[in-house]
Amino acid sequence: MATTTFTKKTLTLETSEPAVTPAVTPPPPPTSENTFAKKPKLAGTKSRKKEIPEGLWTKCPKCSTMVFDKELDENNKVCPKCQHHFAITARERINSLVETCSFEEMDPQMSSVDILEFQGVASYKEKLDAYQNSTGLKDAVITGLGRIGDSRVALGVMDFGFLGGSMGSVVGEKLTRLIETATDKELPVIIISTSGGARMYEGMFSLMQMAKTAAALAYLGKKKLPYISVLTHPTTAGVMASYATLGDIIMAEPGAMIGFAGPRVIKDTTQAELPAGFQTAEFLMEHGLIDAIVHRKEMKQALGTYLDYLSEGRRHRARAAA
Ligand SMILES: [Zn+2]
Questions:
Q1: How far apart are CA 156 and CA 166, in angstroms?
Q2: Is residue 281 within 8 Å of residue 255, measured between CB atoms?
Q3: Terminal Cα-to-Cα distance of the chain (whole angstroms)
Q4: Whether residue 234 has a cis bond before it, omega within 30° of 0
Q5: How does pLDDT run across 149-179, given as a tens digit for each residue?
């Protein structure tokens, strides 16, 4: 009957919908050939971890060395053998940069509202709850005031572990408040980015954050206050196209993937072969987008040096006025 066919159709549409979360793209429809090819593969999936106890060692994806977790933590999550920079949480990053006990967090309780009532495999609300529980964060950025060396700074640090560091209304609002506070208090701003881009679950509200943060930075610039942007692996899409690339100085961590659209999309659109190293920090430094690539261990000192340099004019004027 007509009604049953209709219901069936909507059901199929709903299950194949999760374009939002590419990680769960359904497998291709089985053909007689690939069902056969796939089955033994699934059954024989290699036990990658073998007998190594979990939570003690981590395999470096670059040089395949097994690194003792404690050693990795002590080394700011950098492989001691090949210097591969592992992902680091926002809290770990802040601890590695600011002077002890100098960080005062701003808006720690700000949390997203599911204004579009977004439904997918899991609702947006459910996703937020799950990520809040797993990361202990309310959203993908931590902002606050702290001290690096002798400089008091307004610092924003993104966390890729919270929904891929996506920028929704909370990330945009927290960063805007941070920049506005810095403008009022005459402080330099540092934002450390890692993001998959704008948060699709918030639709247009996410995209509006690009303009909002950029406008706040323009007011900071009018006051001749410095803004340093640090790009870490990966920084892409809407974040890359707004505050991440508006720094007076743009720094990056070695090997970070940085770009707007993914390489496959660009390759398909332009129908051109992409150059080697395309979208890495090193490539972008060579082509003039990035000013400095700094090892995580040296990041604090480098930021201190740049802040000193950028604040010299302001200090000089203050001395002259006194
Ligand atoms: Zn390594």
A1: 14
A2: yes
A3: 88
A4: yes
A5: 989 999 999 999 999 999 999 999 999 999 9
Q: Which single residue is written with the structure tokens 């050939």?
A: 33
Residues 153/102, Cβ–Cβ less than 8 Å: no
Look up the pTM and report it.
Answer: 0.81
Question: How far are the Cα atoms of 38, 45, 54, 59, 72 from residue 50, in angstroms, in the given order?
Answer: 22, 12, 10, 12, 20
| Beta carbons within 10 angstroms of residue 126's beta carbon | 13
How far is the centre of ligand 1, averaged over its atoms, from the C-alpha of 84 (Å)? 5
Token duo for residue 247:
């720094």
User: Ligand 1: distance of its center to the CA of 60 in Å?
Assistant: 5
Taking phi first (over 0 means left), then psi (-120 to 50 degrees means alpha), and beta for anything else, what does residue 169 get? alpha
∠ Cα 46 48 53 (to 5°): 135
Q: At CA 174, angle to CA 140 and CA 243, rounded to 5?
A: 80
Burial class (CB in 10 A: 0-12, 13-18, 19+), 6: exposed
E strand segments, 38-150: 57-59, 66-68, 104-106, 141-148
* Pairing status of strand 141-148 against strand 151-158: antiparallel
117 CA → ligand 1 middle, Å: 43
Ligand 1 centroid to 75 CA: how many Å? 12
